[in-house]
Amino acid sequence: MFSGEYRRKCVSADTAVKAVKSGDWIEFGWAASMPKLLDEALARRRDELTDVKLRGAVLTAPLAILESDPEARHFLWNSWHYSGLERQYGQKGQAYYIPIKYSQVPRYIRENLRTDVAMIQVAPMDRHGYFNFGVTISHFAAAAEKAQTVIVEVNEDMPQVQGGYDHVVHISQVDYIVEGGHLGLPVLPTPPVSDIDRQIAGQILPDIEDGACVQLGIGGMPNALGKMIAQSDLRDLGVHSEMLVDAFADMVEAGRVNGRRKQIDRGRVTFSFAAGSQRLYDFMKDNPVLAAYPVDYVNHPCVASRNERVVSINSALEVDLAGQVCSETLGPNMVSGSGGQLDFVEAAYLSKNGKSFICLPAAYRDKAGQTRSRIKPLMTYGAVITDTRASVQYIVTEYGKVNLKGLASWQRAEALIGIAHPDFRDELIQEAEKMGIWRNSQKR
């Protein structure tokens, strides 16, 4: 039925990128969904273009457009969320971060941002004329809706993923189709799990009840907790999580997750994007247990909190004695991004019997080999606040967990110092005294 339209719109990557003009804004890709052939074709047009600005996130491999233009005279990357590679591009002036509340990104695109071209990697068209977004749903429907020109790059290896809505784009909305053949998907290595990760995960596991609805962030500690859950005797767990990682496949296949007690998307694993091993991508292919949705559904606190007993687990870089959380910068230097952390901190607490956990090792070694505390009197100069002190519930280190909800400033200081690395507790008490948030009766 759509074969004629398909043939008319099917062009080479070099032809498709001719739609790009100097000064354009391009919505480009996210994590495991990067349009490889379009990237290479656009790089070949470098000398014809200036001031082309691209938005995307979580690069897993170098981009040809940025490698071809080290002085950023032609192409500029604007990232919704930094990976290590984007940090490197940022240090060279080729990339800049876009502060976000992830649940609001589709609205940013529809209401606030200019989008001239959308370039999206998709699965092959089905017989009804739809291209499935595969492993990344996120904000792609909003980008396709807003863009003046929509280009899809068909990856034969992109799995068709079952969804709720906005997980597909119809051929009638597409201007150009580029056939990529078998492009594969980038494998995101599972973060190594340290002994401290296991200790922190062990602090949280007793707080997860049968029937809980789990959200896991990215990193070694959430991965450790996922593996512990898979090996536990927990039953009837649900999943409502912006990111799908290998640990969720482990949990489903171990029989821990069935979603029977969820209040929305009952029986389904709800997510907005995925990145991980080939095993994860194989698990996702046409799997009826999955429900892929745009991020303004998955991450919206009012939606996610409709499930009861939501348990949200995310990581941080540092916490101050007020209970503020920084999860995205080291001082003024961008490390990752806010992502959906605040969305799920809010969602978990709004959920009936829900719990939100922010996890971090109590200390770290700096480049000079000196041990530093991650719990600080004040945030490092230039650090960005990801979660405000009033929004934070549990803070967890390998030395324990504390619930900050409702605590006065002196109580917060005492609780956080109690889970700091022992080598820094006296120093933290002295600083808390100077700040007027330590009561004399509590001196140790």
Q: Any overview of this molecule?
A:
This protein is α/β, with parallel strands linked by helices. It has two domains: 3-179, Glutaconate Coenzyme A-transferase (3-Layer(aba) Sandwich); 195-442, Glutaconate Coenzyme A-transferase. Helix content is 27%, strand content 22%. It has helices at residues 3-9, 13-16, 36-44, 64-67, 84-91, 105-112, 140-146, 195-204, 220-230, 246-253, 278-284, 295-298, 301-304, 341-350, 409-418, 425-434; strands at 25-30, 52-57, 75-79, 95-97, 117-122, 130-132, 149-154, 168-170, 176-179, 213-216, 238-244, 269-274, 290-292, 310-315, 318-320, 325-326, 329-330, 333-334, 355-359, 363-365, 371-373, 375-376, 394-397, 400-403. An eight-stranded mixed sheet has the order 13-12-11-10-14-19-23-24, sandwiched between helices. A seven-stranded parallel sheet has the order 4-3-2-1-5-7-9, with helices on both faces. The longest helix is centred in the middle third of the chain and has 11 residues, at 220-230. It is globular, with a radius of gyration of 23 Å. The protein starts with a helix and ends in a 10-residue tail after the last helix. The mean pLDDT is 96. Belongs to the acetyl-CoA hydrolase/transferase family. It is found in: Cytoplasm. Pathway: Lipid metabolism; butanoate metabolism. One of its GO terms (cellular component) is cytoplasm. Residues 276-432 form the Acetyl-CoA hydrolase/transferase C-terminal domain.
